[in-house]
């Protein structure tokens, strides 16, 4: 057996086509050895258990604690707690250990509950019942007991329990229909095909008689690629080998539809299925908010450590005087004299404040988890088809040999005409018309879903069937051919049936399908007519068809293609070639050899396709309309007004994309367009020199020749010229990957400067990898602007993963984009509310959250710092240990989480540094004067309680002043927090607690409130601390009111002058 190691590839590598397959595996179907003489050795593959959980009962505690303490902040706080436990400090280790324990415990409970839900979901899947064919009988087993090589029976509407190779079905043609909504979100039916030689094995006894082995690639996560072959052994006959591809693979998680039952052999099980591999190891993006909060904590830590250093230094300066260091009533021991001590209280205050600040960060993460950088997005990269447009295709017109056909063909003379007055566009030969329409009916992968028969419709041939396909373009083309009299009737036993204009049924044997891919941008079929003629029909983008047809046939069709593209239609060209039997035999042999290859199958198939699709004859072209999505133009205008730059990255033709950009108002009529396309650069050997000239010319016009603004910024902005840039994929390749002998290494920088000066950029004919390169180029520019990518298809996954923020549209091209995005939305118009409402409000709230925690923690620590100057830096705490612990956890944490604000406060840095400093100074000086100069002085703990009471009320009422939108929840948490503080203080000081060595707070709070001077001091200090804030609010209100009065007076003046102007006229 081959190596069982399997590679895991990143999605970005897959999109770039860089996957490397390592080794193969051999699967024995039904565990029956090929030869009875050979001893069968059971293969060792993983079982079919799905494990999405992280923990078990035994490893949850150690593993969760290890993961949490791997974070530097948690580990740092753990060390501080242990130091406080070991070293004698004036405060209890509980004051710092309790907040850390609170964070660790709540996080562990949350993660444990989420993992329990994953365990429950895994058990539902693993314990579900399946049927295995053993000894020609059905054996019911649990899903987790399926082994690689087992033959599994799946019935209609059941989910495939593992990745299966499709062997046979209840359908005689060996087909089945599946939906992959749980994998890629596509709800439409997909057709899969059984192995040609096993389609007749549609019973338990027949399928059990199969002796075969399967050789296939090792598991890899790409849902749409599979390479393998099946070798069937028959008695007294040579082994027969057949190729296996993605059309033969039934994926775990997909659901069987419109088919009674199928048989399949398990090739990938458990955590090696494609579904499991796709849900492993998805990288998480860190938002700028999280990074800024980390930086804020570091700065805050430096501030507090500097305070500790100052206090420790001053402590030893104070103790340098023997009288201060060792008074006669408190002499030191020899051990105390030899011990160096940092100012313990301030050091504790540093640790406690940083811990509590970390709780701020944890609370922000907990409430805003999953949020990414919506607020400061500067660049929006969007796909066109399915994102700006509906991806709902409607056949508009076609041209045959240069003659335009629209709406319907006259049955009398064959001329094309439109509804209403008859319009003649010229006429192609009747045989060419029929050849073109037959090509539309045959060159596709559309299948027919039989309509349900109901009473009154049974036996009516006019009852229309439903076309199903993975591409809406193909359905539109088949329906377009139906309008002109050629109807596709379906595929049966490898024969395609169509009904012509004479209502006759034609049969064509489908020999080969050369499937579409984004690189070739075309697809072909090879069919045999009933007369034995061999035909190849091909359709695709004009850029991929024109180089492969006779050059003299291009011009007459190219005119129509260009005009349709300028009208905003999607265009496809249709070509054909008649094959001789000898040519077909060669192509058939080459295709079969390429299909049987296990290594580099895609490259070998592509080479055969390239040779086959050559020297064709052009028949005509089609035009399909893809309408703009609702409010897409308004959304782009709103994003532009918000200061964002929108770039469109598409694989469509330049003319089509350009027309769409005008329709969605990306380009305005006043926008001057700069073009960097193959048409402008040229195809000559001097194209790099020509590109250099264009880049330097555009750079001079946009950057060097722009006059410096004079006067106001508004004036210079209104007088500036808007520029738009159009670039195609081939020119972008020259810029990003210049030839080795060219001196154009600086192309990229010049190009980037031009792009950044343009108001809008259109990139057409882009490959998926080039889309990601564009996003990466902008993302890595100076200043690291925040980027957002939005798309709806698999070709958009690379740029979605590359951007800071990835948005997936749940469109008609599947759910690949939505599955790999940070957020998924139904329509492009929802991007407006997502960015301008939710993104803005999120940043307002998180900014106020950070500022408020900075403010209240500075207010909390500054009085303690000032107190050290009055206690000889003796490590004497100002606040009680219970207050230290409860300040951030209970007294001041809830109000900020329910606050509502209209805008970010102006001058936030000044606001957060000066205001808490003034408030702390006021509280400190006021409390000091009150306790020293007024009537009663109760002692150290009374003084600290007065300061702490003023502190709690000030920071809470400060938040109440900032609240712009009041709800019952705001009232409850703000006034409830103050009431809880008062209740807790009475309760904490009203009971003699047996676990405390010192009852220093006993009856302190209640006795403090018996003094009228204390009441007066508290109220006065709170008012003085909040007076600057109140003054700012009053001044701002007066300014806004005067502004409103001026606007009303201006409006009244204009209104009163209108009758005078009218009478003058």
UniProtKB/TrEMBL annotation:
CDD domains: P-type_ATPase_APLT_Dnf-like (cd02073)
Entry-linked Gene3D superfamilies: Calcium-transporting ATPase, cytoplasmic domain N (3.40.1110.10), Calcium-transporting ATPase, cytoplasmic transduction domain A (2.70.150.10), HAD superfamily/HAD-like (3.40.50.1000)
Keyword annotations from UniProtKB, A to Z: ATP-binding, Cell membrane, Coiled coil, Endoplasmic reticulum, Endosome, Lipid transport, Magnesium, Membrane, Metal-binding, Nucleotide-binding, Phosphoprotein, Translocase, Transmembrane, Transmembrane helix, Transport
GO molecular function: ATP binding; ATP hydrolysis activity; ATPase-coupled intramembrane lipid transporter activity; magnesium ion binding
Binding site for ATP: 383-385, 474, 516, 539, 570, 650-652, 765, 771, 795-796
Taxonomy, superkingdom: Eukaryota
Cofactor entry: Mg(2+)
InterPro entries: ATPase_P-typ_cyto_dom_N, ATPase_P-typ_P_site, ATPase_P-typ_TM_dom_sf, ATPase_P-typ_transduc_dom_A_sf, ATPase_P-type_domA, HAD-like_sf, HAD_sf, P-type_ATPase_IV
Gene Ontology BP terms: phospholipid translocation
Annotated P-type ATPase N-terminal domain residues: 42-96
Enzyme active site: 383
EC number(s) reported in the record: 7.6.2.1
Coiled coil: 577-604
Record-listed Mg(2+) binding positions: 383, 385, 792, 796
Catalysed conversion reaction: a 1,2-diacyl-sn-glycero-3-phosphoethanolamine(out) + ATP + H2O = a 1,2-diacyl-sn-glycero-3-phosphoethanolamine(in) + ADP + phosphate + H(+); a 1,2-diacyl-sn-glycero-3-phospho-L-serine(out) + ATP + H2O = a 1,2-diacyl-sn-glycero-3-phospho-L-serine(in) + ADP + phosphate + H(+); ATP + H2O + phospholipidSide 1 = ADP + phosphate + phospholipidSide 2
Residue stretches making up the P-type ATPase C-terminal domain: 818-897, 912-1037
Domain P-type ATPase A: 127-255
A UniProt-annotated Pfam family: PhoLip_ATPase_C
Ranges that cross the membrane: 941-960, 972-995, 1015-1035
GO cellular component: early endosome; endoplasmic reticulum membrane; plasma membrane; recycling endosome
Localization terms from the record: Cell membrane; Early endosome; Endoplasmic reticulum membrane; Membrane
Bilayer disposition of the protein: Multi-pass membrane protein
Family: Belongs to the cation transport ATPase (P-type) (TC 3.A.3) family. Type IV subfamily.
Entry-linked NCBIfam families: ATPase-Plipid, ATPase_P-type
Name under which the protein is recorded: Phospholipid-transporting ATPase
Species of the source: Chrysolophus pictus (Golden pheasant)
């Amino acid at each position: 057996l081959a190596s069982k190691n399997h590679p895991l590839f990143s999605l970005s590598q897959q999109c770039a086509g860089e996957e490397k397959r390592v080794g193969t595996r051999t699967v024995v179907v039904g565990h029956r050895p090929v030869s009875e003489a050979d001893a069968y050795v059971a293969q060792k593959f993983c079982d079919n258990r799905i494990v999405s959980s992280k923990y078990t009962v035994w490893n949850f505690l150690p593993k969760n604690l290890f993961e949490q303490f791997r974070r530097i902040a948690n580990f740092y706080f753990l060390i501080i707690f242990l130091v406080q436990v070991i070293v004698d400090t004036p405060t209890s280790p509980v004051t710092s250990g309790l907040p850390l324990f609170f964070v660790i415990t709540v996080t562990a409970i949350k993660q444990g509950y989420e993992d329990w839900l994953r365990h429950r979901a895994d058990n539902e899947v693993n314990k579900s019942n399946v049927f295995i064919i053993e000894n020609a009988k059905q054996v019911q087993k649990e899903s987790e007991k399926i082994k690689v090589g087992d033959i599994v029976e799946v019935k209609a509407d059941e989910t495939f329990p593992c990745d299966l190779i499709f062997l046979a079905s209840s359908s005689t043609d060996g087909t089945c229909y599946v939906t992959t909504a749980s994998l890629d979100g596509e709800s439409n039916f997909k057709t899969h095909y059984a192995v040609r030689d096993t389609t007749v094995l549609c019973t338990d006894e027949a399928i059990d008689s199969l002796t075969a082995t399967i050789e296939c690639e090792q598991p890899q996560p790409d849902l749409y690629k599979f390479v393998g072959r099946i070798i069937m052994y028959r008695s007294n006959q040579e082994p027969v080998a057949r190729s296996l591809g993605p059309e033969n693979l039934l994926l775990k998680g997909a659901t069987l539809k419109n088919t009674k039952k199928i048989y399949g052999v398990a090739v990938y099980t458990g955590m090696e299925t494609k579904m499991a591999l796709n849900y492993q190891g998805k990288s998480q993006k860190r938002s700028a908010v999280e990074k800024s909060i980390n930086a804020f904590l570091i700065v805050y830590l430096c501030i507090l450590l500097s305070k500790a250093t100052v206090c420790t230094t001053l402590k030893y300066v104070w103790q340098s005087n023997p009288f201060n260091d060792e008074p006669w009533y408190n002499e030191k021991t020899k051990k105390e004299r030899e011990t160096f001590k940092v100012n313990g209280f301030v050091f504790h205050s540093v640790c406690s404040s940083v811990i509590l600040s970390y709780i701020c960060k944890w609370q922000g993460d907990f409430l805003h988890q999953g949020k990414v950088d919506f607020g400061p997005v500067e660049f929006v990269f969007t796909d066109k088809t399915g994102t700006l447009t509906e991806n709902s295709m409607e056949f508009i017109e076609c041209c045959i040999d240069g003659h335009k056909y629209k709406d319907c063909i006259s049955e009398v003379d064959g001329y094309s005409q439109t509804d209403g007055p008859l319009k003649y566009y010229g006429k192609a030969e009747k045989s060419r018309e029929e050849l073109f329409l037959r090509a539309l009916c045959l060159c596709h992968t559309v299948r027919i879903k039989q309509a349900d028969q109901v009473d009154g419709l049974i036996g009516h041939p006019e009852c229309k069937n439903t076309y199903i396909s993975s591409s809406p373009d193909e359905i539109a083309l088949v329906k377009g051919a139906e309008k002109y009299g050629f109807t596709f009737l379906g595929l049966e036993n490898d024969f395609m049936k169509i009904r012509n204009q004479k209502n006759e049924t034609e049969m064509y044997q489908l020999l080969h399908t050369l499937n579409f891919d984004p690189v070739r941008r075309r697809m072909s079929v090879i069919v045999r007519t009933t007369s034995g003629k061999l035909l190849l029909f091909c359709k695709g983008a004009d850029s991929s068809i024109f180089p492969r047809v006779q050059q003299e046939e291009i011009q007459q069709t190219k005119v129509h293609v260009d005009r349709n593209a300028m009208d905003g239609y999607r265009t496809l060209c249709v070509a054909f070639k008649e094959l001789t039997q000898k040519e077909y035999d060669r192509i058939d042999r080459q295709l079969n050899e390429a299909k049987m290859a296990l290594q580099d199958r895609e490259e070998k198939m592509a080479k055969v396709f390239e040779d086959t699709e050559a020297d064709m004859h052009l028949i005509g072209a089609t035009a399909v309309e893809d309408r703009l999505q609702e409010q897409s133009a308004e959304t782009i205008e709103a994003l532009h007004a918000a200061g964002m730059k929108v770039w469109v990255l598409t694989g469509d033709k330049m003319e089509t994309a350009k027309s769409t950009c005008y329709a969605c108002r990306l380009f305005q009529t006043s926008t001057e367009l700069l073009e960097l396309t193959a048409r402008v650069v040229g195809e000559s050997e001097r194209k790099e020199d020509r590109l250099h000239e264009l880049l330097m010319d555009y750079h001079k016009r946009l950057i060097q020749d722009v006059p410096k603004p004079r006067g106001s910024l508004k004036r210079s902005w209104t007088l500036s010229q808007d520029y738009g840039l159009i670039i195609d994929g081939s020119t972008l390749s020259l810029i990003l990957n210049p030839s080795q002998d060219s001196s154009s290494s600086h192309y990229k920088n010049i190009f980037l400067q031009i792009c950044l000066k343009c108001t809008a950029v259109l990139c057409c004919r882009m490959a998926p990898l080039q889309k990601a390169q564009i996003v990466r180029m902008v993302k890595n520019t100076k200043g690291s602007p925040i980027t957002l990518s939005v798309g709806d298809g698999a070709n958009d996954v690379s740029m979605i993963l590359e951007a800071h923020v990835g948005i997936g549209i749940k469109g008609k091209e599947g759910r690949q984009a939505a599955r790999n995005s940070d957020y998924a939305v139904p329509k492009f118009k929802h991007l407006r509310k997502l960015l301008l409402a939710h993104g803005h409000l999120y940043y307002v709230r998180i900014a106020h959250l950070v500022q408020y925690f900075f403010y209240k923690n500075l207010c909390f620590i500054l009085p303690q710092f000032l107190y050290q100057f009055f206690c000889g830096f003796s490590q004497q705490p100002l606040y009680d240990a219970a207050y230290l612990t409860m300040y951030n956890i209970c007294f001041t944490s809830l109000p900020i989480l329910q606050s509502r604000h209209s805008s970010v406060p102006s001058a936030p840095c000044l606001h957060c540094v000066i205001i808490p400093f003034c408030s702390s100074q006021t509280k400190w000086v006021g409390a000091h004067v009150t306790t020293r100069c007024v009537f009663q002085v109760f002692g150290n703990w009374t003084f600290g309680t007065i300061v702490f009471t003023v502190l709690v009320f000030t920071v809470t009422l400060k938040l109440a002043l900032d609240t712009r939108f009041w709800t019952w929840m705001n009232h409850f948490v703000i006034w409830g927090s103050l009431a809880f503080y008062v209740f807790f203080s009475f309760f904490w000081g009203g009971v003699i607690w047996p676990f405390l060595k010192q009852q220093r707070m006993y009856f302190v709070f209640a006795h403090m409130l018996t003094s009228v001077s204390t009441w007066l001091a508290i109220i006065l200090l709170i008012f003085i601390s909040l007076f600057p804030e109140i003054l700012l609010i009053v001044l701002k209100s007066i300014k806004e009111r005067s502004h409103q009065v001026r606007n009303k007076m201006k409006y009244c003046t204009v209104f009163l002058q209108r009758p005078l102007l009218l009478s003058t006229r």
